[in-house]
Amino acid sequence: MRKIVFSDISVRYRRTSEEQIHDINLEIEEGQLILLCGPSGSGKSTLTLLFNGIIPHHSRAIVKGEINVFGRNPLEEKVANMANLVGILLQDPESQLATSRVKDEIILTLEFQGKARDEINAILNRLLTRFELDKLAEADSIRLSGGEKQLVALAAMLSLDPDIIILDEPTSNLDPFNTRKVLNHVASFKEEGKTIILIEHKINEVFNYCPPDKIVIMDNGIIFDQGMPKDIVQRDSLQKIGLSPPKIYDYCSRLSLTPNQRENLPFSLAEFQNFVVSLSADQKAELSNFLILTPRMNLKIDQNLMEFSDISFIYRNQIDNALNDITFSINKGELIAIVGNNGSGKSTLVKHMIGLHKPKAGNLIIDGKDSKNWTAAKLARKVAFLFQNPDYQIFNSTVLKEVSYGAKNCGMKKLLAIEKAKESLNLVKLIDFVEKDPLKLSMGQKQRVAVASALTMNPEVYVLDEPTTGQDPTSLKGIMDLMLTEYQRSSATIILVTHDMELVDSVANRVLAMNDGTIVLDDLTENVFANPLLSKCNLEPPIRIKMLQVLNQSI
Amino acid sequence: MVSSIDDIISYIDGQGKIYEIDFRVKMIWVLLTILTAVISLDALFNIFLLFCTILWVVSLKSPIFRKLKRNKALVIFTFSLILITFLFSSLNYALIYYKMTRELYFFFFARSVAIGFLTASVALIVLSSLHTTKTIEMTAGRGPTVSILTFLSFRSVPLVAYHLNTVIDSQRARGLELEKLGIRSILRGIKAIIIPLLVLLTGSVDRTSKVLESRGINPTVKHKSSYIQPKLKKIDYFLLIYMITLLIISIYLSIIFSPMHATTTLTYSVFSELGLI
ipTM of the predicted structure? Predict the structure, then answer.
């Protein structure tokens, strides 16, 4: 059996003094599915780029140690020569497509390998069918959805039929529907005997759709722990670096179990269905109590803040409305989640809340005034919008200037803005970074700069746009903790835009579920999760609810 | 006569033969149409071109022709107009009809260009440019550096637009008002947009190059095979021959009917002598 062996590997990028990863010793057997996890900046991506020699040939770096990838040495071979052996898929589908037409993306790779026309045709048709892209073969790749683009990138990568597949957060930008689709493909690659290295933060989904053979945990540039999933979880290695074990395992491990039951704790829903059979009535009742009780924030609902009446919106040059007859209201002090798949209209809806869009039909009243009387700049004083990627806003030369920028724009006096900025930086634990260049901070620190920037503006409403996208659980928890502290401290309203139902389950009191520009559900969180209409939005309830459903069936 | 380019392509059948024509031929067709139009400055040649275009439209069973057939009054009017114009303009005296003919011709000329480009998507136009560049580079025995760069440049346009819009939205949500600022503030506002945009694009470019290289796509590596079928279909050859013939006839007629040509000069003298002009 062929193997991938990393022996005493250390990597230092040119122009940096510190090693990104060091003393890496890793052995992967052919056909294994490896889940590589760890916080952002722990060295996961650096490690994976060594597999085909992107490091050191493309990203210049000094590499110490030895690498053997199925008998070949990527440190010496050209990257192009390794393309038949190692395929890489990144998280951002937009950056991975080089051509303008779906089928050209696949063809281009094959042409560079010198394949004959007939062979190209055969591979092309096989991949288009496999990824259900037949109807999109001639489509302009620019116009595809995020999920479709990721499938095209996956098909292009697979066109060379590599034995090793590296997937670097492939579902990060995808909604639950497309996440499931991509992870199901990962499971099929494993069935075909491919060796897979999967970097993924959505650990619950991974265990449900493509359970790994081995987990490798990285932290601060080293391999913190590695082994069988069961051993890793039992050693609490995930928790030690701020990650969570699969929720199903977590809930079940809290029960009073027999040693045999503890040996067979489930990781996925399929395993849980078998596990439930072994539980006694008392254990089932105990588990039911865990699953039913979900601590939520105490609501401090005040008067009406925003009122949407029959709002419709259409983008220029589009045929279909992005929003259709939207009617609902938000009260001050609410913690509300707007959920829906990509393209369901969530972002369009919140852009109305921050004045970036004006309704084409219907009325929107914000704080007693018609939205037509609110400019985006005026609304910025009232509603802070936190974009999913802090790189969309950071530009100042120091952290202090960056954090006080929005407040000054909103008319706050310079000295007061600086004072408020320092207070906010203290809250986000970045007070020692005031004079640092924000562009040189880590992604987690940049997120906290963005939060501090919003806090300094002292708004009444915080809108968080897809906070889970591209975030490791530690960074996400950091942001959510900050927001919830602010929520408790002030009378702020929080609007959470997401398709992460686990996050919704842990924080939101009320949920608005959207599909095709309409609101399908608007109710308390528990009621929305119990409503069968949720599936109409291509969404699934969180693991907790799914476990409850399985449990109730067994009683 | 033609209010917008959308009006023109709205007549084109989605399943029409036009879509079967090779895009390389379409590009040549558009170029030849423009060249022919430039050469044909006289009303007579415009009439000639008009008939050629009608012939072409009929040959492709264009829906616009079917539309015309349904409207008999319009057909009679159009053909009467063409006939009268032809009679007069053939003697070089139909100046009053000249403008009308040109407008009519413009309709078909614009339509030709529109059909050529708009029945091909932007993707196809880019693709065609790329393959032409690629062929030149391959013939020269070089790696497809320019074609890959061309491809990536076209492909990155929507990405830049998306990032730009999001950065502007992000800064507007932080109270930036580009509309109401002075010059100094506008410069600061631009800085607030340009720097994040550059950071985002640098990241995108880096990711793209990594992914392409890992797929064995490298501009310095020689392109080894080509999927594009070099063979043209019958309809492509028909169109090419038709357009080249049209161009040759236009050149020939433009020489024959040139004011400097003996025939024209003689005709002019005779009519002048008769007091008709």
Answer: 0.82
